[in-house]
Design brief:
29% helix, 13-stranded mixed sheet, 567 residues, alpha+beta, 18 helices
Amino acid sequence: ILLLWLICHTYYSDILIHAMYLVTFFFFLMIRRPPRSTLSSSSAASDVYKRQVSTQSTGAGQRTMARLMGGFLMATMPLVAGAVLYEQNCASRGLCRVPIELRDPALHQVSEGDPPGHLRPLGDPAFDQTWDGEVDEFDGDIPPELFWQKYYPFKPFVMRGVAKKHPAFHKWKDDGYISKNFGQYKVKTENKNEDRLTDYCGMEKMGQRVDCPRSVLPYTESYMNISSFLSRYKNPDHDTYAISQLPTLMAKDVIVSPSWNCGRRPKAELEHKAEVQSAPWMTQLYETNLWINHNEGQNFSSSVIHYDMNHQMMCIYDGEKEWYFWDLRSEIDHIPTWSEYYSKQHQRPTGGSDDSPIDGERVDLKRYPEFAHARWTNTTIRAGDCLYTPAHIMHYVRSTSRNIAAMYMFQTGTQYAPSQCAAESAASASQTLDKFDVLWEFPGSVEGGAGWNQVKMGFPDWKRQYRAPILRMAGGTGTVRKSDFLRMVAQFDEGHMFGALERAVHAAFEAVGATGAVEAATVVSSPVFDELFRSMAVVGEFGDEREQELDTRFHKIMGKATVREEL
């Protein structure tokens, strides 16, 4: 587009120039960041995620061009009347990645009469008057009854030292062990100091147009193998953080807290799925994540102020993470959010997850005076600790030194089912994470199958979105017709991918020996149908994805003597 635009300007008439303006304009309208966390699909602590509701998926080509063109389009966007100029947060610009006493004093210079705390970082003594103390702490695990009845779904807490029993606590301190055993797996990387301003440039937010300076840097993410990341993440000029899905083989080194036992499973699974019948106390998990970065000296990485759409348990095995929390049920009037999804009336978001324009390292109380009244709590987790972070709770995170953690999560709507913990040992039973039923494993459940080796963070709950409607079609007959499956896949207007799903339906029926109809019990119990539903979800999210593989191959060959030839 740019090349054609320049050629027209140089050699051709005004008519062609105006035509190219129109093409560029419509190209800009096409650019969309892929949907991240919505009411139907969500993922890890959204230091990772763009939080924007969308009903359409974005193809790999659009995403690649968006990353290449986004910065240019944002930088050339003119200011308009009634717009507000925003700048990226201080840490992302490299100015506030160290404690305040090591920063340029001019960054925090205030005038006489400015409100207390203006341009100070979160946690500063200036905010002590609104501090509600540290979150609850326990020395070790807590029983499921206490978790579900007192803390779920609103109150965070820390379990000190519980992760010291995990194999990961010792093994993951060694980069060599990780590279040797898991180095072949892919990870997604992002900037160490998160900023999401470019998600909103040019949009109407909080009643005003968001304009961005010409210096704005677009959000970027890339993919590489774990071994490639570990070979460079300690370099002083390396500025990315691995935030990705946890490979199932690595999950063997993580132990799930028994406090999370006893989440309700569907009746159909309790009746027909052997794995659930043998351990009904094992709560359905949604996704598992891996977090790795390195901060030299007193530098730190940081998130934006945000909330997520799922319940999370993070266990840290090296380094420290400093957390700040705000309960939006009482504090939403004091904290601005870009998309204003959170409903005070319903005490939950009516859209997806969201973040705040407030800079956690340089709080502007002149632009956002109400934030001075926002009550907050905090904690610092250290190697060996595990932290529960509820869905919809606003939070901000700083990470220091070599930092590695694992996270597992379940989705909102999960309910306590004490009847599934009737066995005497269920309340204290623990298992390694790889033994749990996880909706989205990595690299995948079947080699070469749905989304194999694709990072599937924030994908939909395929059991709710695809399997549940199919089972309802069974009605009182106890069987589901093949035609019902085919009608479901007909909704995917993805060209050759629709044909692939149609063939997958026929193959699934053939694999279980069914023809025109199949028992509902088989749909629940058979891994063949699990894979079929995952395929639907993958196609619905990103069709025939290639972008991640290109990124991974590029990083793999970087630094080789033959790099020019291979590129």
